[in-house]
């Protein structure tokens, strides 16, 4: 029988509207044939017509015969809430046929994925040929990119900003043709920064430097270790590869959960903490709005998470994937001591550590750090963060939760989990205020 | 990397190498061998590599340091209001979800009445712009944290009607310690706020001041009178009406004399209210005095009693100096109701006279006199004046007769109008709230409670239905909940029912359709949440006073 709790069920809601609609129909009279077992729950929602709603708790994955694309829909939310509130509404443990079929399909897909991940190759010779061709393509793309960057500097950023979109788009398309999709995306980012003019000149220069460094690293790849090469390939556009062995740590703490909706794509960035070794990991999830996909839920900041992570890179382990979500485990909150013990006690030490890692791997988008005893101060009329030695750092211009931070922290020192993109400013993502852990990261649900 | 070098680098990158003076001059001496012209295929290549190296070094060398221009933020002010319980906040959020402005105001008023600070998240949303018109209320109920934020965010304090925050602390002291006397400093600050702020906040300040000792109230009124504008003065007169017993006592003699020595008032609204106050004081203090005799004479001229015992009303055709001296003004309107000038004059006389004088002139009991006036041809015109009179002369037990007269075909608008006037009285004279509730007990009060204005006014005055009254109201309400009638947050907050009473099914439950049952349950759930919200506030207040939550 399912041990789903109401909090867990609510955490899977794709947006507050669906949750509120789900709550309204979370009553026994709105469903029939409600069933549940250890793995799944199911029921028929009595709407304008009957909709068959299924939940695979091991995913979690959702399916409903209603026309709504965004899952879990209100029928599934209502069913989960109903069962969470009152397990006695379950009348059957016998799985209906459509559910069994769906679960077996999901099992076969998972097996296929696992075999792909384990590196089974059907035709090694053809694969080697394809790999060589791709490397040649990338070589060509990288050469063109270097010329393009030189050209930007020769004519100047001011003039490049006035260039037609076609000039930039041609370069982007050339990189896509050269199978270097990662670089193509960065060209689009660079175009936007150059076009914005004086405000983003420094960011544009930093991006040019990064792209040039990537080109140089690729051209000197023979001197890099396998792990470094794997990381580089991933940045250029090769599919993500994961470590063959999962990480040994089994007990993680969710630090923050940032959700964004950009260009028709939901994204979720979850930061995790390994309290034993005081290191961080990042989970990234994406879901297309057009396809009606939804982001995985259950990553409530401050909760403990039991599971194994598989990092992308052994060289600079940060991005990872959780082997299995833990929907069925009762969520327990991490103790405040766990956060304060994992935090540095001043900004200088924390930033020194970050800068050392940045020097080791200059390609990462952002670096996490956790500092205790930081407080809000004013610097030239703007809010900034200072530690007890009065070391001070500005807040990132992209930080949207200033009011929330002021409300929670006030003038008192607190422990903050933050990230830095440029080593100069800080983006608070969550923090320990009083005895509870609060999320400060953006949570755009697109309601 | 030095700032000069970074500036040179940025400027070269912006203008372009082709426009740049000399790349060699930009490259530091210790790097000139590495970046020699011979090592690169072009100047652009050389610049790109050098730029990359410098950017990376520059980026990873950044470390936090102390800054001279760092300013510590001010300390948080001391807490004056109780902190709201998290459970209560959850219920507030649930109740406030998608509610109308009036309902939100009702919920916030319940919190303020029990001395609780308003929820920070809600107040932040108000100041950040998603909620309009509640800024003053949120300022009044701001927690210590929110007051700290207000001191740092000038954009927020500009949203307050006074465009300043220095009034919040004295106003919160009024809220949290109603019995403590006002210091001179606090009084001066409050007078300034009273003159500068919007009517809503002025109403709140008046209600809070009305809870102070009578001597304090009189001192405030006398100090504030000369700087107050007409709208403020009307509230000050209501404050004096609230302490009329004290004014008639020996302690209030000085203020009584001050009131009668006031020069002629220019604003008609204030002039009328002052006359009403003086009239009520005169009738209670000197019923056989000169003023009362003149008033009776003027009224008797309008009432013709025949030998058969019937009577007829005649409105004064002209505004004579005698009528002006009594306090009758030359008006056509009563609030937003159109009345002819003669009827308005008669109405004002009736209002000034009060039920006891009506009874004396008609030579009958007060109830009969009231009924006879309602049966007269001027009934519709007289209703608002009669209601005013009953409030000012504290004869609220007669109100049901007025409401019965208003609750008739083609007089629907009058019922609403009277409810609005009654609400104004409740707001301006706190003693009227409980008296009105007592009167409603003897009336079909669900009829009136559904006019949300009265409910909101009672909530603002911190009144709640008694257990018995709630049960009566519940019996009247239950059949309506089977249809689409929901009493609204304001009325629900007035109810005082136990869970058992609330869950008791209505008559003929088994004969109801499934839709009706579902609707009824949903309504009950919302009413129950509203009741629990108010009860949790009271419980919290009781616990705090016992020292459980310091």
UniProtKB/TrEMBL annotation, chain A:
PROSITE patterns: ZF_SWIM. Pfam families: SWIM (PF04434). It comes from the Bacteria. Residues 51-84 form the SWIM-type domain. Residues 94-110, 119-130 have a biased composition (Basic and acidic residues). Keywords: Metal-binding, Zinc, Zinc-finger. Residues 1-24, 94-130 are annotated as: Disordered. This is SWIM zinc finger family protein. GO terms for molecular function: zinc ion binding. The keyword Zinc applies.
TrEMBL record, chain B:
This is Uncharacterized protein. It comes from Marinobacterium marinum.
């Amino acid at each position: 029988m399912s041990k789903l709790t109401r909090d867990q069920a609510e955490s899977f809601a794709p947006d507050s509207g669906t949750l509120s609609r789900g709550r309204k129909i979370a009553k026994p009279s709105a469903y029939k044939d409600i069933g549940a077992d250890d793995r799944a729950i199911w029921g028929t929602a009595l709407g304008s017509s009957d909709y068959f709603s299924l939940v695979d708790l091991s995913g979690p994955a959702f399916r409903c015969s209603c026309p709504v694309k965004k899952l879990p829909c209100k029928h599934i939310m209502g069913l989960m809430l109903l069962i969470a509130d009152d397990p006695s509404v379950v009348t059957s443990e016998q799985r209906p046929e459509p559910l069994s079929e769906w679960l077996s399909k999901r099992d076969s897909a998972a097996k296929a994925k696992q075999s792909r991940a384990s590196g089974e190759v059907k035709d090694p010779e053809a694969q080697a040929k394809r790999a060589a061709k791709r490397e040649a393509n990338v070589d060509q793309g990288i050469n063109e990119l270097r010329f393009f960057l030189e050209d930007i500097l020769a004519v100047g950023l001011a003039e490049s900003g006035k260039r037609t979109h076609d000039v930039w788009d041609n370069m982007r398309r050339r990189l896509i043709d050269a199978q270097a999709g990662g670089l193509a995306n960065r060209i689009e980012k660079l175009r936007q920064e150059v076009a914005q003019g004086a405000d983003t000149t420094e960011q544009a220069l930093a991006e040019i430097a990064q792209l040039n460094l990537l080109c140089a690293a690729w051209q000197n790849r023979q001197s890099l270790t396998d792990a470094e090469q794997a990381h580089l390939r991933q940045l250029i556009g090769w599919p993500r590869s994961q470590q063959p062995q999962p990480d040994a740590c089994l007990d993680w703490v969710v630090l923050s959960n940032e959700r964004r909706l950009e260009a028709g794509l939901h994204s979720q960035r979850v930061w995790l903490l390994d309290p034993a070794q005081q290191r961080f990991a990042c989970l990234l999830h994406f879901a297309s709005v057009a396809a009606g996909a939804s982001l995985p839920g259950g990553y409530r900041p401050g909760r403990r998470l039991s599971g194994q992570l598989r990092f992308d890179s052994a060289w600079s382990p940060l991005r990872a994937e959780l082997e299995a979500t833990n929907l069925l485990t009762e969520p327990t909150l991490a103790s405040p001591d766990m956060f304060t013990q994992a935090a540095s006690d001043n900004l200088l030490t924390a930033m020194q550590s970050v800068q050392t890692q940045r020097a080791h791997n200059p390609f990462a988008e952002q670096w996490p750090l956790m500092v205790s005893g930081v407080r809000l101060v004013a610097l030239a009329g703007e809010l900034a963060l200072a530690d007890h030695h009065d070391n001070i750092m500005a807040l990132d211009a992209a930080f949207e939760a200033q009011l929330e931070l002021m409300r929670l922290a006030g003038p008192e020192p607190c422990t903050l989990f933050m990230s830095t993109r440029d080593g100069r400013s800080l983006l608070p993502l969550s923090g320990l205020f009083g005895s509870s852990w609060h999320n400060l990261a953006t949570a755009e649900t697109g309601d | 990397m030095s700032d000069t070098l970074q500036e040179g680098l940025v400027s070269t990158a912006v203008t372009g190498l082709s426009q740049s003076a000399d790349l060699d001059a930009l490259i530091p001496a210790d790097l000139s061998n590495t970046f020699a012209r011979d090592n690169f295929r072009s100047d652009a290549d050389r610049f790109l590599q050098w730029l990359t190296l410098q950017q990376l070094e520059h980026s990873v060398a950044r470390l936090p340091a102390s800054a001279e221009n760092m300013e510590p933020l001010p300390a948080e002010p001391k807490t004056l209001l109780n902190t709201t319980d998290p459970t209560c906040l959850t219920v507030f959020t649930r109740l406030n979800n998608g509610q109308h402005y009036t309902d939100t105001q009702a919920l916030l008023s319940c919190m303020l009445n029990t001395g609780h600070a308003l929820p920070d998240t809600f107040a932040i949303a108000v100041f950040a712009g998603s909620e309009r018109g509640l800024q003053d209320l949120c300022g009044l109920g701001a927690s210590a944290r929110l007051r700290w934020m207000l001191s740092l965010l000038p954009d927020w304090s500009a949203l307050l009607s006074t465009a300043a925050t220095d009034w919040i602390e004295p106003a919160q002291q009024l809220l949290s310690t109603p019995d403590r006397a006002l210091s001179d400093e606090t009084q001066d600050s409050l007078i300034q706020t009273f003159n500068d702020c919007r009517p809503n906040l002025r109403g709140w300040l008046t209600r809070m001041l009305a809870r102070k000792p009578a001597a304090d109230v009189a001192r405030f009124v006398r100090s504030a009178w000369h700087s107050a504008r007409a709208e403020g003065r009307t509230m000050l007169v209501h404050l004096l009406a609230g302490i009329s017993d004290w004014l008639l006592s020996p302690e209030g003699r000085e203020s009584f004399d001050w009131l009668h020595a006031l020069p002629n008032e220019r604003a008609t609204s204030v002039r009328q209210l002052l006359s009403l106050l003086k009239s009520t004081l005169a009738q209670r203090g000197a019923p056989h005095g000169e003023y009362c005799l003149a008033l009776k004479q003027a009224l008797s001229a309008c009432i013709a009693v025949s030998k058969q015992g019937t009577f007829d009303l005649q409105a004064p055709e002209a505004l004579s100096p005698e009528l002006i001296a009594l306090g009758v003004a030359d008006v056509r309107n009563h609030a937003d109701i159109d009345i002819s000038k003669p009827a308005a004059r008669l109405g004002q006389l009736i209002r000034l006279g009060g039920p006891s004088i009506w009874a004396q002139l008609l030579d009958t009991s007060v109830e009969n006199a009231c009924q006879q006036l309602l049966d007269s041809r001027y009934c519709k015109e007289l209703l608002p004046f009669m209601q005013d009179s009953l409030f000012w002369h504290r004869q609220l037990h007669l109100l049901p007769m007025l409401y019965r007269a208003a609750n008739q075909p083609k007089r629907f608008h009058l019922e609403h109008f009277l409810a609005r006037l009654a609400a104004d009285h409740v707001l301006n004279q706190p003693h009227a709230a409980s008296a009105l509730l007592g009167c409603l007990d003897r009336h079909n009060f669900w009829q009136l409670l559904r006019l949300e204005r009265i409910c909101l006014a009672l909530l603002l005055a911190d009144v709640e239905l008694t257990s018995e009254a709630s049960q009566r109201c519940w019996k009247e309400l239950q059949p309506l909940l089977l249809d689409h009638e929901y009493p609204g947050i304001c009325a629900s907050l007035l109810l005082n029912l136990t869970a058992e009473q609330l869950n008791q099914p209505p008559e003929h439950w088994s004969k109801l359709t499934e839709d009706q049952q579902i609707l009824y349950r949903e309504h009950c759930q919302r009413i129950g949440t509203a009741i629990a919200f108010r009860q949790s506030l009271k419980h919290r207040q009781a616990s705090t006073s016992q020292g459980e939550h310091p």
